[in-house]
Amino acid sequence: MEENILKGVRDINQRHTVSLLNALEKGVNRKLHEKELEIESMNRKNKELGDRIKQVAMEAQSWHYRAKYNESVVNVLKSNIQQLLAQGTAQAREGSGDSEVDDAVSCSNHQRIVSGSGNQGLQNHPPKCRVCNGKEVCVLILPCRHLCLCIDCEGFIDVCPVCQVMKTASVHVYM
What we know:
By secondary structure, the chain is mostly helical.
C-alpha cells in the first residue's frame, strides 16, 4: 500500500512537473513569438528609414545642383548687368538709345523679322539667350513679348531678363 501511495505521489509530481513545463514552454513560445514580431516590425521600419534616407539624399543632391545652377545664373546676370551698364554709357552717347541687337530680341520688331526685311546680319547670327549667352533664343516671354531665352533657361526664369517684367507665360518659337 505504501508503494501505491508513493507511486501515486510520484505520478502526481510528474504530472505537475509536465504541466509546469508545458505552461513554461507556452509562455516562452508566446514571448518568443512577440519578440519575433517586434524584430520583424523593427526591420520593416529600418528599411523604410533607409529608403527615406536615400530619398532625402537624392533631394539634397538635387537642391545642390539647383543651387549651383542658380549660382551660375547669378554670375551670368551680374556679367550681363556689367555689360549693360557699359553699353548704357555708349548708348547715351548714341542718341536715341535704340540698338539693332535689342530690336532683334524684342517682339516689338516682329514685323521686320517675320517679313525678312530686318537686319541681314541678325539672320546670319541668330540672337543668343540673355541668360546663358550660349544657345539660340527660342522662347517668347509673355506679357512683354521679348524673344530672349533658350529652352533650357526658360524653366528657371520668372522675370524677363530684358525688361524685368514678371513672366506670366512663355511660348516656344520655332525659327
